[in-house]
Amino acid sequence: MKALHDLTATEIVQAVDEGKTTCEAVVRNCLDHIAAREDAIGAWNFLEPALALEQARIIDRSGRKGALRGVPVGVKDIIDTADMPTEYGTPIHREHRPRIDAACVALTRRAGGIIMGKTVTAEFANRYPGKTRHPMDPTRTPGGSSSGSAAAVGDHMVPLAIGTQTTASNIRPASFCGCVGYRPTWGDIRCHGVMEVAGSLDTLGLIARSVADVALYRDVLVGTKPEPITPHRGGPLRVGFCRTAIWDQCEPHVQVSLEQCARVLAQAGALVSDVTLPDEFTRLEDAQRWISSFEFARNRAWEIDHHWEQISEFLRTHRLRDGMSCSFERYRDARTFAETCRGMMDTFIQDYDVLLTSPVSGEAPVGLNSTGNTSFCAMWTTLHVPAVTLPFFTGPNGLPVGAQFIARRNEDRRLFQAAQWVTEAWERR
Amino acid sequence: MKALHDLTATEIVQAVDEGKTTCEAVVRNCLDHIAAREDAIGAWNFLEPALALEQARIIDRSGRKGALRGVPVGVKDIIDTADMPTEYGTPIHREHRPRIDAACVALTRRAGGIIMGKTVTAEFANRYPGKTRHPMDPTRTPGGSSSGSAAAVGDHMVPLAIGTQTTASNIRPASFCGCVGYRPTWGDIRCHGVMEVAGSLDTLGLIARSVADVALYRDVLVGTKPEPITPHRGGPLRVGFCRTAIWDQCEPHVQVSLEQCARVLAQAGALVSDVTLPDEFTRLEDAQRWISSFEFARNRAWEIDHHWEQISEFLRTHRLRDGMSCSFERYRDARTFAETCRGMMDTFIQDYDVLLTSPVSGEAPVGLNSTGNTSFCAMWTTLHVPAVTLPFFTGPNGLPVGAQFIARRNEDRRLFQAAQWVTEAWERR
To answer: Which of B106, B300, B327 has its CB closest to that of A301?
Structure first.
């Protein structure tokens, strides 16, 4: 039998229901694993075992109710928690204790989830990294900005974690750390109590080790009754293989793996065809840059005016410099352009159930000063479409590489159906 | 000469620049007026004269810099301030002191504005009213949820205030209290540090006593260099007179006033024509209800789970009941429908510089248990278009009634040009 900390969220709920374990035992086992591994990985910005255990005992005593009964969850440290500090990845907010839980944290607790602790974020969920190292190779980045969430789930410290994504901050670290990563349709999950990076682009992100788990957790956070993923129906799965205009930035092994995936899916019965995106979409990464920089610089007005010297040199000379130099007209034009492309995408993607594309240029890179290349996510983020990365591939250094699947806006359930189907096809290959 | 508290923001800046007054004298004069009037009106949830005066002295000593140098501003109490409590209109958050200023507050201070205090909001910026009374008739509501902001500006306690709008919460109280009210294009001004009501619809709102003032303050909050309103150019102003499908809910005096306004503008040289909105738009108010209720109920998850008994009966049995009973599909369909209508509106409104329509059904109603009819704003809010209300009319009880002007999304500057033009035409009539 698997160790408790190796179970997925869905498996934990089942084990608890069958009386095979208690919420407290699950949490205790995860804490033991964290204790053994945390020095090497540094996934947590705050972790207080007694607090986690107390939550678990309350769930045990009160009849183990809710869709996430007994499931330990890591929460990115830009998300407010009433019983734990929230520091936004910056010394400016050291030891800050919010008054209330963010909406997503409150909904997690309502569902019986255990908030294990706060996971490391890059500074203000941007690019200047925190202390976290890749769980399989301490010389490499786990990706960012949801660094701790991805490393914690990838190392089996917790089965579920919340991240956020404004550029590539959830899908990319999930790919690097061998997790299932999910970015929802923009706007579906409330961000009240989550530090705003750039509201026109921000979403929460979920990180797990199975498609069923992200689907379950999405229902909890959307605030509706959880429903299992039904099988894909209505003829063969229509997969658009989308190399994108930056295909040549993918390392050769990524190209080979994606080509192989496309073949495997076709052999399993999917209708796989090559797709070329509208030419305009090559300008979306630039639009993303100006939208996010403009909004980010305004959202940080208080920190800029009161704590400029405590902001990293990197942030000051990149994102904030961009944001402060960007005119309103440039920003507005970028936002309008992005909205036009979203309409084109709605039409374009109607011929497919999902697109298959790369979430990253390769394995997690060596070095702890950068969180890697964001280009393979920036366009999809700006299109507001839902995305899933699945841990299908292994790179030349033995590290995970994901396959990213994209669906139409508002079709997150169809995306999960497809993700389930392609996972089964890939495992049967 | 006018008393200092009767000056607009633009006039204060000019008087300060010309050495006719100091920031401290302006603030002191406003405080004196507040002291005389606050017992009757109750516009403020927090006001500490020493704190306001200290800010003014700092601006005086540091060379009176910034576009709002010396201008006193009221801030709706759902907007975070680091040096003042922020209570969100509920006993649940009594004496809460946020860690940092909201982005809009930080940008106001950066521009030399004085945060005078926190203005009364309805509970969670919804409909259960606070203590504020109409400045001209204490038996009447000032409107809501930005009740204190509108009453404070209407009574000349401050020249500028920030409100917010998710349904009618800024334009309606501005109309009732005889102010210039402005709701920006959705998404233009960052809401970081502002309590989220329903993010898909929320915007800040500005309340002032001149069009020049709202234009100035908008530039400050957008975070760009302020530019004066240039005159309307390019032929006669094209005004679409839009009675809307709920015209018969307007009291007769409102109908008469709007008809008169349309005639005056035509006589002044505008091209005025009647317009009928697409039939679909009659369903926008219902869409607004489900979008706002669904999102609001999830944003209040922490308060619902920890302080249910401290939430007003009204909120529990209306907005929260709606939100908790609304399925995700109903919510998503409403959101998608709203987005479709926004696209239709972009096309439809191209033939006009602005639409003329009513912001309210009449004068501020008698009674302090309700904040009035929201239907005349809900549609425009959901369309994400910019709106201005101008204090043109007087009702049968001698109370103000506004004329609302609507422009295309992202054309807030054109809206200000038109508002300036129609104000001059109306004053010359």
So the answer is: B106
pLDDT tens digit at each of 429 positions of chain B: 799 999 999 999 999 999 999 999 999 999 999 999 999 999 999 999 999 999 999 999 999 999 999 999 999 999 999 999 999 999 999 999 999 999 999 999 999 999 999 999 999 999 999 999 999 999 999 999 999 999 999 999 999 999 999 999 999 999 999 999 999 999 999 999 999 999 999 999 999 999 999 999 999 999 999 999 999 998 999 999 999 999 999 999 999 999 999 999 999 999 999 999 999 999 999 999 999 999 999 999 999 999 999 999 999 999 999 999 999 999 999 999 999 999 999 999 999 999 999 999 999 999 999 999 999 999 999 999 999 999 999 999 999 999 999 999 999 999 999 999 999 999 999
Interior angle at CA A401, CA A7 and CA A41, nearest 5: 60
Taking CB atoms and an 8 Å cutoff, what residues of chain B touch A105?
302
Which of A191, A195, A328, A344 is best to mutate for the B interface (most B CBs within 10 A)?
Answer: A328
* Beta carbons of B408 and B389 less than 8 angstroms apart: no
Tokens 């075992």, located at residue: A49
Cβ of B336 and A305 within 8 Å?
no
**CB contact (8 A) between residue B298 and residue A107:** yes
Q: Between the CA of residue A121 and those of A33, A302, A368, what are the distances in Å? A: 21, 20, 13
Residues of A in contact with B223 (CB under 8 A): 294, 297-298, 301, 328
Q: Which residues of B48-84 are buried (b: 16+ CB within 10 A; e: fewer)?
A: ebebbbebbeebbeeebebbbbbbbbbbbbbbbbbeb
Q: Which residue of A has its CA nearest to B87?
A: A99
DSSP class of B354: E
Contact A190 B295 (CB under 8 A): yes
B169 is catalytic: yes
Contact with chain B for residue A202, Cβ under 8 A: no
CATH class of A4-222: alpha beta
Q: Which of residues 273-332 of A touch B (CB under 8 A)?
A: 294-295, 297-305, 327-328, 332
**Residue B260 and residue B356 in contact, taking contact as beta carbons nearer than 8 Å:** no
- Give me the phi and psi of B29, to 5 degrees please: -65, -40
Identical topology for domains B4-222 and B238-281+335-428: yes
A69 at B interface, C-beta within 8 A: no
A428 — alpha (psi -120 to 50), left (phi > 0) or beta? alpha
Domains in chain B: boundaries: 4-222, 238-281+335-428
Structure tokens at B210: 């001149």
CATH superfamily of the B238-281+335-428 domain: Amidase signature (AS) domain (3.90.1300.10)
Distance of alpha carbon B388 from the chain centroid:
9
Type of residue numbered B139? T
Query: ipTM of this model?
Result: 0.97
